[in-house]
Amino acid sequence: MPRILMVASEATPFAKTGGLADVLGSLPAALVALGAEVAVVIPRYRSVPLDGARRIWDHMELWVGPGRYDAAIWEVDRQGVRYFFADIPAFFDRDGIYSVHGVDHYDNYSRFAGLCHAALGIARHIFRPDILHCHDWQAALTPVFLRLYFPSDPTFYGVRTILTIHNLGYQGRYGKEKLWWLGLPEWLYRSDLLEHYGAINLLKGGIVYSDLLTTVSPTYAREIQTPEQGFGLDGLLRARSASLVGILNGVDYAEWNPETDRYLSAHYSAENLAGKKECKQALLAEFNLPADRPEVPVIGMVSRLAAQKGFDLIGSVAWDLVNWDIRLVALGVGEARYENLLRHLMNARPDRFAARFELNNRLAHLIEAGADIFLMPSRYEPCGLNQMYSLRYGTVPVVHATGGLDDTIEEGTGFKFRPYSGDAMLGALRAALTTYWTEPERWVSMMREGMRKDFSWRSSAERYLDVYQRLLGTAGFGQAQVHRQG
Ligand code: ADP
To answer: Quick one: which of 95, 76, 88 has its CA closest to 28?
Structure first.
């Protein structure tokens, strides 16, 4: 069984801003359950709790370009997984994971380069892996440093590297001068290496230097090879198409299950749906919406307020929506323009629209349970988790047919629209509402079919294990030798 060292910027329950953290919180344990040995490295941000953690390394010297840093390593064991926290105060002992007050930390490139160096240090001194599995641009320099700095280190003989792309929209692009600050040679500034449209692109470095690439759904793996969704990297991804695999994320059903959910006042299952009505009442009360006509359908949204998530579509049809006999409940934090859009709707029809602008896991659970319909009109969606939670909660998804949304929702379990337009979205919502009002039996059978779908982590972990084993069994796989041409 392989030994895997994962490198990432977030992992539940230690540090989370989005779905990436959920993956790093669940996939490792699912791999351990299959017999693999797994460790994870994340930064020790100021907010990462150290209670129960052991300080297992005091002084690990790291160089990031011209700067020398001293890292300590902490370890917590959780569900059979070794979580290492790279404690580099100059980089991580400050507020905010990536940003404060909406402004990115100016030195994110070197902060996360520090994480990559710490991961290689851990691989050399603490946990010697067969596979280095890196996630997103923050970890993407790990394979680059590995090939540049340790080409003949016996620790790394036979070690294979994997990069998982959770969202191609975030690439870590910086000015050319940052090469020097990262301790990287100038010859990397080439269009087939780290250069990208006049800048350096750290994710691109990971794509070029990793033995294998994965992303978080089969459809997204195809989409990112097209100019429409490739964010300028589609050509490179097409060139590496044979080494690019799409594996769906899973759901943590210990956390997302209407039969046991600790946040709900009533529980329910596919066999006995009665409790869902009570959850709907609780949701309406929580969001101060009228409860006098409980039959009116509630549309729920839990989402980052970002362009990716389709709020421009909602804006384009806002004045249609205000006239519909619905309730819409939204939870999200993000861009002010989308917050304003939701505020406008609330002001126009306070009896129909309600939104809260905070990160609040309890409210996310209340919405999943209490809504009838879950709306996810994402422009693109690498995998998406909320539509899978919705299925389990009998909350019928209405989604744009893209990426993981297209892979997880089918005709019998939800409503999909394409193209990406306000009219197409309204069409799907109308179809859903028509079924809801006029064919209640069909509606309930859709709910039940969705509730019986199983997207547990086990099957995803099996796919990852396949990939690891394929990689370890295949000599000379991938493009690990590319830098020698430089
Ligand atoms: P992304 O990672 O692109 O934001 P995903 O659907 O993959 O989207 O994952 C989002 C995760 O964050 C889900 O677990 C979702 O429930 C959670 N989430 C998003 N916004 C909020 C919020 N305002 N409060 C609580 N949880 C949230």
So the answer is: 76
Task: Kindly state if the Cβ of 333 falls inside 6 Å of ligand 1.
Answer: yes
Q: Which residue segments constitute the domains of the chain, with CATH numbers given?
A: 3-250+459-473 (3.40.50.2000), 274-454 (3.40.50.2000)
Confidence of residue 485 (pLDDT cuts 50, 70, 90): very low
Per-residue pLDDT reduced to its tens digit, 371-383? 999 999 999 999 9
Q: Measured between alpha carbons, how far is residue 202 from residues 108, 109, 170, 369 in Å?
A: 11, 8, 10, 40
Q: What is the mean pLDDT of the chain?
A: 95
Peptide bond into 151 cis (omega under 30): no
The token duo for 35 is 């017999």
In short, whether 364's Cβ falls inside 6 Å of ligand 1 is yes
Q: At what angle do helices 422-438 and 440-451 cross, to 10 degrees?
A: 110
Q: In angstroms, rounded to a whole number, what is the distance separating the alpha carbons of residues 306 and 312?
A: 9
Predicted model pTM: 0.93
What would the two tokens of residue 354 be?
């309600």
User: Among 32, 76, 212, 57, which residue's Cα sits nearest to residue 125?
Assistant: 57
CA 420 to ligand 1 centroid distance, Å: 21
Q: Assign residue 194 a region: left if phi > 0, alpha if psi is -120 to 50, beta otherwise?
A: alpha
Candidates 308, 335, 359: which one to mutate for ligand 1, based on the most atoms within 8 Å of Cβ? Answer: 359
Q: Left, alpha or beta for 72 (phi > 0: left; psi -120 to 50: alpha)?
A: beta
pLDDT tens digits, 260-313 = 999 999 999 999 999 999 999 999 999 999 999 999 999 999 999 999 999 999
pLDDT in tens, 170-183: 999 999 999 999 99
CB-CB contact of 118 with 72 (8 Å): no
